[in-house]
Design brief:
With 362 residues, the protein is an alpha+beta fold. The chain has two domains: 141 residues, 2-Layer Sandwich (Heat Shock Protein 90), CATH 3.30.565.10; 178 residues, Aminopeptidase (3-Layer(aba) Sandwich), CATH 3.40.630. Helix 2 runs antiparallel to helix 3, helix 3 packs antiparallel against helix 6 and helix 7 packs across helix 8.
Length: 362
């Protein structure tokens, strides 16, 4: 299926109303939830294979909740909310039982496939949930009980670099190209170009992997959940570089991320101008500041952040794994098994309010 066919297929998916299913903590009622959720998913466009994955996810989550979160003989309601998300289907499971051991759950989620065989059935279930869901978040909410959020994405095609699909490269990688350009928001039809450029810059190793799916890039931008800005050649409308704003979960600020340049235009200064443009745009949003991660093995990213006025606030050890980058002045990929990132923050003047999670106080 080509990109135009893929786009047409998913543009017509209906946005459905949220539905609520309420059941007692009875194993026999899991099938009712599975049937309703799968029917909802099929309406959104999920194929039979993905619906089987959704069934398995629900069976494992609800079984774990019912078997392990209640005292013997305790009868409670479990609420299941099903909704359409930007990228697919979201399922929120709310229960009021014994508080979950979230640290233990994270331990199971981080196990490799070979290690999981040495764990108990509950650990295997958590591992399977992680394998089939695109996002899983476990939350203890005190007196409000526990909540599990699950999201499954529609099966969009991921961009794979192909020599038959040009990356709009007019010069050899590493050669500086001086050109006039302007900056604007991305157009919907440009999302495949952005995904290809991301592949060329990072292979398939970039931590924010939504960038490799053109349809996801388009949909996230339409909802402003990802705000992509591009530097565009004034002469031929080629895209020189890309940078995006995404919501940072820790600080609740916008994060400047997903930055890369067409190798043909390295040295044009577009990435620096893109960053300045984004900061100007963020200031118009009346927010307190902006957040950025600079990779420790990539000195340029650190120097660029300092040059824009960012201040270090934290160091994330081994945040990135198996990172691959296209080396500057070379067309070859440079692989790094593990690397860390410096967290930096820029606070706008006269907006120094308290930031959540105690990221910074001034």
């Amino acid at each position: 299926m080509n990109e135009n066919e893929l786009s047409n297929k998913f543009q017509n998916i209906p946005v459905m109303e949220r539905i609520l299913i309420s059941i007692h903590n009875d194993i026999k009622l899991i099938n009712v939830v599975m049937a309703g959720t799968v029917s909802y998913a099929k309406t959104l466009g999920f194929a039979e294979k993905e619906c089987k994955h959704i069934e398995l996810i629900l069976e494992e989550v609800l079984s774990n909740v019912i078997k392990h979160n209640y005292m013997p003989g305790q009868i409670e309601n479990i609420e299941i909310e099903i909704e359409t998300t930007t990228l697919g289907i979201g399922i929120r499971i709310k229960s009021k039982g014994i508080p979950m051991d979230i640290d233990a759950i994270k331990t199971f989620q981080n196990l490799e496939a070979d290690d999981i065989l040495n764990r108990d059935a509950q650990g295997l279930g958590i591992f399977l949930i992680k394998s089939f869901a695109d996002e899983v978040v476990y939350t203890n909410k005190g007196r409000e009980g526990e909540e599990v959020w699950i999201e499954k994405y529609l099966p969009y095609s991921r961009i794979e670099y192909n020599k038959d699909i040009p990356v709009l490269m007019t010069e050899k990688p590493g050669e500086s190209v001086k050109t006039d350009f302007y900056i604007r928001r991305i157009k919907p039809e440009e999302s495949p170009v952005i995904s290809r450029l991301a592949y060329y810059a990072y292979n398939l190793s970039y931590i924010y992997d939504q960038i490799y799916y053109p349809e996801r890039v388009r949909q996230l931008n339409e909802k402003d959940e990802m705000m992509s800005y591009v530097a565009v050649n004034n002469v031929n409308e080629e895209i020189l570089g890309h940078c995006a704003l995404i919501r940072d979960e820790l600080s609740e600020l916008k994060e400047m991320a997903v930055a890369f340049v067409n190798p043909a235009y390295r040295g044009s200064g577009c990435l620096k101008d893109l960053s300045k443009y984004q900061i100007d745009e963020i200031e118009k949003m009346n927010v307190s500041g902006v957040f950025v991660h600079a990779v420790t093995i990539h000195p340029y990213s650190q120097k660029a952040a300092y040059g824009l006025g960012f201040k270090e606030t934290a160091l994330f050890i081994s945040r990135l794994t198996a990172l691959q980058m296209n080396k500057i002045n070379s067309g070859k990929m440079k692989s790094v098994n593990h690397c860390s990132s410096n967290a930096g923050i820029l606070i706008f003047k006269d907006r120094r309010k308290y930031l959540s999670h105690n990221i910074i106080r001034k």
